[in-house]
Amino acid sequence: MERNVSDILEEMRHELKRDRRLRVGELLEALRDKGPFFILMVLSVPFLQPIALPGVSTPFGFVLALLAIGILIGQDLPMPGWIRRYALPQRGVSLLFRGAVALFRRLERWSKPRRMPALTASDGALKGHALLMLVSSVLLMLPLPIPFSNSLPAYVVAFVALGYLLRDGALFLLAYVFALLTGAYFALIAVVGIEGLQLLTRKAWGG
């Protein structure tokens, strides 16, 4: 029987209580095929608030994009040895795991695995979700000091990752709702930017 994400994280949190530092490789091995999606969710969390973080979003978005590409092509990404051996800070990770366990306990009570099977069982749909994450990660990389320019694509990534982790189509559906909002918002930014540039050009040429 497949174990819940919350049970795996709770077990690892108890390991941390024994004054034992957790390595990235151990986290990935414990989560197995869920590992990349858990990392995607964790990396998207800092950007879920409305204030943009341009200096931080670019490297984070790049890592998210690489993970999304690995999922899209259906191959495990080769993780450098120094990353797998990296020991996570005990106190910070313990707090993170405590919050993650509480979050997943609530989500697992609410979610229904394999709900909306067209969004969870089809290989084509799963590839589409990965492509959606890739596009959102690229948008997250853009260094735009504009409110919501980080948070909207980050919500897409977070909900897709949660959909994979909990195998719940409703979470994928939420991701697509945020994708539509993201597309509309970035289209508005582009239109306003182009009109502003045209106005500046006319003023510069005395028009």
Automatic annotation (TrEMBL):
<keyword id="KW-1133">Transmembrane helix</keyword>
<dbReference type="Pfam" id="PF06055">
    <property type="entry name" value="ExoD"/>
</dbReference>
<protein>
    <submittedName>
        <fullName>Exopolysaccharide biosynthesis protein</fullName>
    </submittedName>
</protein>
<feature type="transmembrane region" description="Helical">
    <location>
        <begin position="173"/>
        <end position="194"/>
    </location>
</feature>
<dbReference type="InterPro" id="IPR010331">
    <property type="entry name" value="ExoD"/>
</dbReference>
<feature type="transmembrane region" description="Helical">
    <location>
        <begin position="148"/>
        <end position="166"/>
    </location>
</feature>
<keyword id="KW-0472">Membrane</keyword>
<feature type="transmembrane region" description="Helical">
    <location>
        <begin position="51"/>
        <end position="74"/>
    </location>
</feature>
<keyword id="KW-0812">Transmembrane</keyword>
